[in-house]
Amino acid sequence: MANHKILFVTSEAYPLVKTGGLGDVAGSLPVALKAQRNDVRIIMPAYRDAMRKAEKLGFASFHMEGVPETVRLLEGRLPGTSVKLLLVDSPAHFDRPGGPYADPDGHDWGDNAERFATFARSVTAVALNKAGLAWQPDVVHCNDWQSGLVPALLSPHPNRPATIFTIHNLAYHGHFDSSKFESLKLPHFLWGMQGLEFHNGLSFIKGGLVFADMINTVSPTYAEEIRTPYFGYGLDGLLKHREDRLVGILNGVDYKQWNPANDPHLQYHFDSHHLENKAKNKQFLQQQFELPQDPEKPLLGLVGRLVEQKGIDLVLDIIPQLIALEAQLVVLGTGNKRFQAELEAAAGQYPERIAVQIGFSEATAHRIEAGADMFLMPSRFEPCGLNQIYSLRYGTAPIVRHTGGLADTVIDANDENIKLGTASGFHFEHANAAELLQACERAISIYRQHPQRWNKIITTGMKQDFSWKQSAKHYLELYQTARQLLGKHN
């Protein structure tokens, strides 16, 4: 397969800026693509944190054709890698406190349309070799609504690169008032139902869905789900129309960061052949969260955003039953204030069974993965999910709803799969508390009554390979397909 020159377009990348799965993907996939001898450059906004953390940062271009002169391009390296990094430096748009999409109080920036339109125009200049870099990509790989305008802006140019658009979460459209279309001075041919118009407003994500040469999601099951009304958020008709250009590629994980055999965040290291230290990590986790250090108590972990999408309300609904099962629960996360308050109230009511830490800590997240016996991910939808994959490698059986990437990565421990030796976790079908409780009861029953069977389930999970090397091969095939389609079109 031919090597590619790839411009990887993202609004976040670990370790520069990360709010979710996109940050993990953007920090790992380009590295895996470069390892397979492709010329990869990441381009993202020059947020304050990104400017501070980027390595070997210098000026690349003071002016890009079609972009205001106040915007410049900086060049550096993604920390800890040899992947080139391009930062779109527009201080008025990106040099500010808070997150990449929201202010310090958690409210969306009021000028997000202007911010990411400026970003898209800068990407377009680089993609068309109009940024003074003497480099033009073969493929422009865009991610989520923040880069959705890029395929649209590139579409009329005869010598453009092939475009890929990856949907990490269709719930976020980048939807703005229709007046923004005129104020952003976008080309008039982009307006209308066949363009960027969506329910009388401007939709950034439609730029990718309508105009990209190929579209993908981050798991095969999610690629099927988003073509249905329940998961499609009003875009299922468009996605069905373009289903010949839509594929699902499962996200990978970085086992250099997530490996219990050498994880620097753990007190005790272990692997599938030496599980004795997992029990020591459980004891350490119980101690950290001031829970009774009882090896017999099943310990359930949860790390993530405390929002309805993640099924946190379902977990809250079954807390009395988990207490009756004499289980322990450790939660790390932040999100909906009501859910945070209810979790903290439950921890206050059951201090020997439930511990909650509001916020995020990378070290604590690793310790929960290593120390818990089971990991809860009762998501209403989950495009891919990464924590269940981390859990598999850490010998922590995932309890997941059968949706999206959760369905693609966790094999249910039903009788047949246990006999086949393929079981790695526990599924439930519908997003309700009763079915979540049944899955927890199944897991706890096997954990307590069939220790050999339990060890087989967790060691099966630990041996799974969800590395980026595998996923990168599928992306390279996708790039090749997009280039071939573009060649036919031209």
Number of domains: 2
Report on the biggest sheet. Answer: 9 strands, mixed
Top-tier CATH class of the largest domain? Alpha Beta
CATH topology of the largest domain: Rossmann fold
C-alpha end-to-end distance? 21 Å
Shape: elongated
Cα gyration radius (Å): 23 Å
Keywords:
490 residues, alpha/beta, Rossmann fold, 21 helices
Report on this model:
Helix content is 40%, strand content 18%. Strands 3-4-5-2-1-6-7-11-12 form a nine-stranded mixed β-sheet, with helices on both faces. The chain has two domains: 5-252 and 469-489, Glycogen Phosphorylase B (Rossmann fold), CATH 3.40.50; 276-466, 3-Layer(aba) Sandwich (Rossmann fold), CATH 3.40.50. The chain has 21 helices and 18 strands. The longest helix is centred in the C-terminal third of the chain and has 22 residues, at 468-489. The chain is elongated, with a radius of gyration of 23 Å. By secondary structure, it is an alpha/beta fold.
List the helices and strands and how they pair.
Blueprint: E1 5-9, H1 21-35, E2 39-45, H2 48-53, E3 55-61, E4 72-77, E5 84-89, H3 91-94, H4 112-127, E6 139-143, H5 149-154, E7 162-167, E8 175-177, H6 179-183, E9 197-198, E10 201-203, H7 204-211, E11 214-217, H8 220-225, H9 229-232, H10 236-241, E12 246-248, H11 276-288, E13 299-306, H12 312-317, H13 319-324, E14 328-335, H14 337-349, E15 354-358, H15 362-371, E16 374-377, H16 387-393, E17 397-401, H17 404-409, H18 415-420, E18 426-428, H19 433-449, H20 451-462, H21 468-489
Parallel strand pairs: 1-2, 1-6, 2-5, 6-7, 7-11, 11-12, 13-14, 13-16, 14-15, 16-17, 17-18
Antiparallel strand pairs: 3-4, 4-5, 8-10, 9-10
Helix pairs in contact: 1-21, 11-15
